[in-house]
Specification:
- The chain has 13 helices and ten strands.
- The chain is α/β, with parallel strands linked by helices and 286 residues long.
- It has a six-stranded parallel beta sheet, sandwiched between helices.
Length: 286
């Protein structure tokens, strides 16, 4: 709570604080403001939610993933750092991915995931179209999430041939390898897609979470409008996902244009830029 935050900030006397949003950050932001500790809040998505709109009044600076978010803040409050990426992402290569997952380098690779808990809607549609994808010469890396893993694991064990279907409940450090090895990805459009897919020049088919606040739709629009992604409505996914994947994987020219469009948005130094901005704030502490 606020009392604990006031005590901790006073006791630790940090030179600067980094906040990442969420109402849990409010007591810390208040404590930093009271004790005159300069703080910076990071906006991972393009459009700020209510929390960041409130907290930005208590911080010195807002770090942005993309320049397009500047319209939501006074010009003197922001710095565009890009999306911070883990070192394992930066080091991932296609060659390492082929070895890690046992991929066939002659086949196109489709990566499908839906977050740590997974997306039941995406999982169900993928399982429906999986036989057609495999018959079409596609190999699939499927990260199911923990929610549906028991059911999908049981179905996996009953499949006659799983040579080109690589299924996992969750990937952590290996997620960068999965992206490095993929030709196309199907997933939701949380904030990480703004940093990770451009890093790998990875064309994406994005299915924004229908019932979540509009931030996923805005993220998907950003990539789609720049030619780096195709956006699918969740309600149309059952009908359109298979032909969309098929058309894209069988159109090398379009796939290459999407790769180029994605790479043009890459900012691999996001973590370093955020750290530099925070260090600058620390140096300016009164």
């Amino acid at each position: 709570g606020t009392i604990q935050a006031l005590w901790l900030v006073k006791r630790r006397q940090p030179d600067a604080l980094l906040l990442t949003g969420g109402w849990v950050g409010l007591p810390v932001a208040l404590a930093a403001w009271v004790w005159r500790v300069p703080s910076m809040i990071f906006l991972p998505d393009i459009e700020p939610g209510l929390t960041i709109q409130v907290l930005r009044r208590l911080v010195k600076r807002v770090a942005l993933t993309v320049d397009e978010s500047k319209v939501y803040f006074p010009s003197n409050e922001t710095v565009t750092t890009g999306y911070p990426l883990r070192q394992t992402m930066l080091e991932a290569t296609r060659e390492a991915a082929i070895k890690e997952f046992g991929l066939d380098p002659t086949r196109k690779t489709l990566l499908v995931f839906g977050g740590s808990r997974g997306s039941r809607a995406i999982n169900n549609v993928l399982l429906d179209i999986l036989p057609q994808l495999l018959a079409d010469g596609v190999q699939v890396i499927h990260v199911t999430g923990t929610l549906d893993w028991p059911d999908i694991e049981a179905k996996f064990k009953q499949m006659a041939d799983t040579t080109h279907y690589h299924v996992y409940p969750y990937l952590h450090h290996e997620m960068g390898l999965a992206m490095a090895g993929a030709d196309v990805v199907v997933c939701r459009s949380g904030a990480s897609v703004l940093g990770e897919f451009p890093l790998f020049g990875l064309p994406s088919i994005l299915v924004p979470l229908a019932w979540a606040w509009r931030y996923q739709k805005v993220n998907a629009d950003y990539l789609a409008q720049r030619g780096a992604a195709i956006e699918l409505d969740e309600n149309a996914m059952a009908e359109r996902l298979l032909p969309t994947i098929h058309d894209l994987l069988h159109d090398p020219a379009r796939l290459d244009l999407m790769r180029q469009a994605a790479r043009a948005l890459a900012r691999p130094d996001g973590a370093a830029c955020a750290a530099e901005s925070l260090a600058e704030l620390a140096g300016a502490k009164p």
